[in-house]
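All the exercises in this workshop are built on plain-text protein records. An example says more than a description, so a record of this kind follows:
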Amino acid sequence: MEVRSFSETKKDESNSRESRQHGKQLTAIKTVTKEKRSMTMDSSLGTKAEVNDGNNTEHKKQNNVFTVNNANRKAAGCHWAAHLANQSYECNGVVNLENSPIPSLSQRQKRKTAQQNKYVAMDCEMVGVGYKGQDDMLARVSIVNKRGEVLLDKFVKPCEIVTDYRTSISGIRPHNIENGDDFHDVQDQVKKLIQGKILVGHGIAKDLAVLQIKHPYPLIRDTARYKPLCRLVANGRTPSLKCITHAILGLDIQSGEHNSIEDARAAMKIYNKLSFDWEKHFRKQKN
C-alpha cells in the first residue's frame, strides 16, 4: 500500500475542489446560454405575433372602411361621391392615401371650368370715325371661353362722331351704341378677363389696338398669323376667317353682317381642332 504524504493529500483535495468549481461554472454558463437562446426565440416569436396582430388589425380596419363606405354609399345615394369627399381614412394614425377622399363633383367642376377659362377667344366689331370713316373705333367686343360660352358681350358708346357705321359688315346700327357701355369700363373688363390667359382670335392685333390694350405675344394664338394654316388654306397669304372656318370646320359664317360672338366661337373652334400641332409648332418657333 502506497503511503501518501500530508502535502500530497492536501494538493489532491485542492485540485478536486477546483475541478468541482470549474464544473459548476460550466454548468452555469450553459444555463445562461440556454436562457438567452430561449429569450431570443420568445422575442422573435413575439415580434412575429405582433406583426401578425398588426396585419390582422390593419385588415380589420380596412374591412371596416369598406363596410362603412358601402353603408355610406347606400345612405348617401346619388350624393355618395360628394359624401366621400368629407370622409378621412386613417390606419394606425397614418393617412391611407389609397383610401383618401376623392374630389367632390363641385371641386372637379371648378377645376374643369378654370381649365376651360384659361383659353379665351375675342372678336371686335368696329365703326368708322374721322375723314370718310377711315379710322377704326370700337363698337362691340365679345369674349368666349374654350367651349364657346359667352364671358363678355358689350356694345360700346362712341367717344367720337361716327362717320361710317359699316353696318353691312359690322352689323352695328346707331341704336346699338348710343346707349352702350363706357369705353374705359369695357376696357377694364376685357383686361381682367384676358389677363394671363391664352388669347385666340383672327387678326387679334387689330382688336387689341382699338381696345388700346396690350397682351403678351407668347399668350396669343392668331388664326390669321399661324403659318401652317395660312399655307394650307391660302398658299401662304393671309386668309379670311370665313375661308378658314369653311376649310377647317366645314361651316359657313359671315354670309351677311358679321357677329362678334359667332366669329370668336369660330376662331376658338379652329384653335381647339389644331391645338396639338399648333402648340408643338409654337414651342419649336420659341426655341
